[in-house]
Amino acid sequence: VDLKINTDKLEGFVSKAAIYSYQQQLVLHQETLLNKTGKGNDFLGWITLPDETNEAMLGSIMQDAREIAAMADIYVVVGIGGSYLGARAVIEALHHNFAGLLTKQERKAPLIVYAGNNISEDYLADLMDVLDRYDYAMTVISKSGTTTEPAIAFRVLRRHLEQKYGKDEACRRIIAITDKSRGALKNLADAEGYKTYVVPDDVGGRYSVLTPVGLLPIAVAGFDIRRFVEGARAMKQLVTTAKTMDENPAFLYAAARNAMYASGKPVEIMVNYQPSLIYITEWWKQLYGESEGKQNRGIFPAGVSFTTDLHSMGQYVQEGLRIIFETVLSIEKPKRDLTVPAETDDADGLNFVAGKRLHEVNRQAELGTLLAHVDGQVPNIVISLPQINEHTLGQLLYFYEFACALSGYLLDVNPFDQPGVEAYKKNMFALLGKPGFEKQTEELRKRLQ
Ligand code: PA5
């Protein structure tokens, strides 16, 4: 695999011995995950997904992607949390930064837009303004099939699609991705005759990017899902078999961040230097936040995009509360090639970088920031990839997933449940007057008076 992890810049904050002291526990947790004997063991289907995603599945998704590309300029992905962030993370990392402003011919694929990841009236109404003008198709993704945000968006958009194309044609333009037998979305898909893909029972939302949940939108966006799965497979082979800290990057990452946490640094900031990686950070935030933040424990996962945020959050990172460590996702080679031009009068005083690639300037900003933050008592972990493509992203996402499971076990929590997300839902249902919530409705309304 191409992914590398470097913990040299933790020196002076935690000893190498402290990091390596997790070694034995990690070997046990690796076994526990593979034998399915630990916490949350009914949600470990994601581990073998890279091997199980066969040619038949890839072929079927790629065929759908071709059909969708032929009929749609825009593809609406309706979903929230784990039923949305993985696809968006990969698509935005691979896309042209201004994909939305290119033509379909230039993009060679429909533009992917997202709905059901919020309940904003303005967002959905604005989206429909656009959908009035373009040919579109959509997928609705919900494992439970009962999540409020995507269910509301789908109710609205389905009506829009049916009014635009008629019921039969609308049906051809919808693919539902849901649980194999339960849930309102499954019943609806069966009743309406939508094509469906299944989210396996033993794969939780935030670990589902290698199922059709991630693969279908990524394929529709025009990217090579076979290479993506191959990248994940290569990483799976490594992180599920290597037994030492030096060979296994997931061991090292899980150990390093737990050592940081134990040393009094409870906030981890994921840093990128490419705006196209912002949604990789968002996906990572969900993965780690939902997996570890429970029982009053867990590293708080935050994200910044540099150098942009060096002009906002940079001040806090450099000199605020010393509770932070950073993990930099470093990309060695850009996709494009752009050089700073020379100017004869050098009015802006920038001729000292003339002739240099922008990436070289970005790289020196990255290295300079790393040293400045370490000097400011913010230790840094560096994860590097040679470049962004389907294969390296497959490696990266699987690496994060496996390391997250290990890290959650080191923390002694169940990394595969999310009991805390129910609290807001119950209150929202009660405040909306959902039948069955009458008592809570009254109590909550009183508290809000
Ligand atoms: O990781 C998770 O389990 C969650 O983020 C879910 O993916 C999210 O709540 C959406 O759930 P569902 O797919 O059931 O609509």
TrEMBL record:
Keyword flag tRNA-binding: no
Active site: E290 (proton donor), K425
Keywords: Cytoplasm, Gluconeogenesis, Glycolysis, Isomerase
Organism for this UniProt entry: Lentimicrobium saccharophilum
SUPFAM superfamilies xref list: SIS domain (SSF53697)
Role this protein plays: Catalyzes the reversible isomerization of glucose-6-phosphate to fructose-6-phosphate.
NCBIfam families: PRK14097.1
Main location (coarse class): cytoplasm
GO cellular component terms, A-Z: cytosol
Matches recorded under PROSITE patterns: P_GLUCOSE_ISOMERASE_1, P_GLUCOSE_ISOMERASE_2, P_GLUCOSE_ISOMERASE_3
Associated pathway: Carbohydrate degradation; glycolysis; D-glyceraldehyde 3-phosphate and glycerone phosphate from D-glucose: step 2/4; Carbohydrate biosynthesis; gluconeogenesis
Entries under CDD domains matching the protein: SIS_PGI_1, SIS_PGI_2
Name assigned to this protein: Glucose-6-phosphate isomerase
Subcellular location: Cytoplasm
EC numbers for this chain: 5.3.1.9
GO process terms (BP): gluconeogenesis; glucose 6-phosphate metabolic process; glycolytic process
Reactions catalysed according to its record: alpha-D-glucose 6-phosphate = beta-D-fructose 6-phosphate
Family under the similarity heading: Belongs to the GPI family.
GO molecular function, one term: glucose-6-phosphate isomerase activity
UniProt cross-references to Pfam families, sorted A to Z: PGI
